[in-house]
Amino acid sequence: MAPTQEQVTAALATVIDPEIRRPITDLGMVKSVDIAPGGAVRVGVYLTVAGCPMKDTIRRDVVAAVSRIDGVASVELELDVMSTQQRKELQTKLRGNRGPEKEIPFNQPGSLTRVFAVASGKGGVGKSSVTVNLAAAMASNGLKVGIVDADIYGHSVPRMLGASERPTKVEDMIMPPVAHDIKVISVGMFKPEGNTPVVWRGPMLDRALHQFLADVYWGDLDILLLDLPPGTGDIAISVAQRLPSAEILVVTTPQMASAEVAERAGSIAAQTHQQIAGVIENMAWLPCPHCDERISVFGEGGGQTVADALTRTLGARVPLLGQIPIDLRLREGADEGKPLVLTEPDSPAAAELRSIATTLSKRASSIKGLQLGLAPTRH
């Protein structure tokens, strides 16, 4: 007995667009369904753009979903491309029917996305490795996570995540690539082939950041991490202006010279009126391969020193969230695009990163920003 139209439509509703992460039936991507008496099914599917990089994935998932229906003898898939009008309608739908205006969704009333700006005073402290592994740990715990590689000059997040695909444009909306269940955007994804440097002045950096936040379709994220460039330059100021609710995560090493610079990076919160979520001490020690004794390669106490200094400066407690030991596999995983928290989850470094990720994922009970529905009364 041949399957019904309802059965095929229900099967197609289980096919998730790999970029937008919503069922293709919700996105208007199903063009047609034809069922022959003998059980041969012909499905027409719209791609968002010609040359869609995910078309093979969509083809595979549609054929697999429909083939599982009892009575299906064969599945034939016909791919077409959305018209300009269809893409505009999809864009409007993804923006919640608010029209084509470019606004930063994380600033809108009712946004439940928690935003962390990962900062450091200087380069070389492992800020990007920490960002990527925190994101991977959060995503593996079932959270919807995104990363903005805001280190425009020193972008490295795509390599560390193994995100080799280029973003897809639907009209003027950008679909970010997904790696390890993390949505990610970086200027490195838009450059021509090769290791071409980015030579931009401040206004261009600010515009790039705004595009990453407003033009990219992030969907409903639980957590957004921004990997900032070292120091307190243009991007740090732009983040404070574009995302005033972003919380700062300060990454340092135990070395006092690094801690002093990290303290200055965190102190920007006193001028921008941002909150500091805490301090992370990276490269805290090296476990001896022979006796497991901790070797303090870069000294001791830098993370706690930064946390204490920022507590005094801001007048609010800034915690030391964790101390991550040195692990060669952390560096190897970054080069291979495989976060340590996924490949070696029980290693000491991964365990500490997972603990930090769990702490940051817990939303503190607060009435800040909530509409309480109170009105003045007269006695």
Please give a structural write-up.
The protein has 379 residues and is an alpha/beta fold. It has two domains: 90 residues, GMP Synthetase, Chain A, domain 3 (2-Layer Sandwich), CATH 3.30.300; 255 residues, Rossmann fold (3-Layer(aba) Sandwich). The chain contains 13 helices and 15 strands. The protein has an eight-stranded mixed β-sheet, with helices on both faces. It has a three-stranded mixed β-sheet with strand order 1-2-3, with helices on one face.
Layout of secondary structure:
Elements: H1 5-12, E1 30-35, E2 40-47, H2 55-67, E3 74-81, H3 84-94, E4 114-119, H4 127-140, E5 145-149, H5 157-161, E6 168-170, E7 173-175, E8 178-179, E9 182-186, H6 202-214, E10 223-227, H7 234-242, E11 247-252, H8 256-266, H9 268-272, E12 276-282, E13 286-287, E14 294-295, H10 302-314, E15 320-324, H11 328-336, H12 340-343, H13 348-361
Parallel strand pairs: 2-3, 4-10, 4-11, 5-9, 5-10, 11-12, 12-15
Antiparallel strand pairs: 1-2, 6-7, 8-9, 13-14
Assign the CATH architecture of the largest domain.
3-Layer(aba) Sandwich
Radius of gyration: 24 Å
Number of helices, where a helix is a run of at least 4 consecutive DSSP H or I residues? 13
State the end-to-end CA separation: 74 Å
CATH class of the largest domain: Alpha Beta
Order of helices and strands: HEEHEHEHEHEEEEHEHEHHEEEHEHHH
Shape: elongated
Q: How many structural domains can be distinguished in the coordinates? A: 2
Could you name the ranges where pLDDT drops below 50 across 5 or more consecutive residues?
Answer: 365-379
Secondary-structure class: alpha/beta
CATH superfamily of the largest domain: P-loop containing nucleotide triphosphate hydrolases
State the assembly state of the protein chains: single chain
What is the β-strand count?
A: 15
Sheet with most strands: strand arrangement: 8-9-5-10-4-11-12-15
Instruction: Provide the helix percentage.
Output: 25-40%
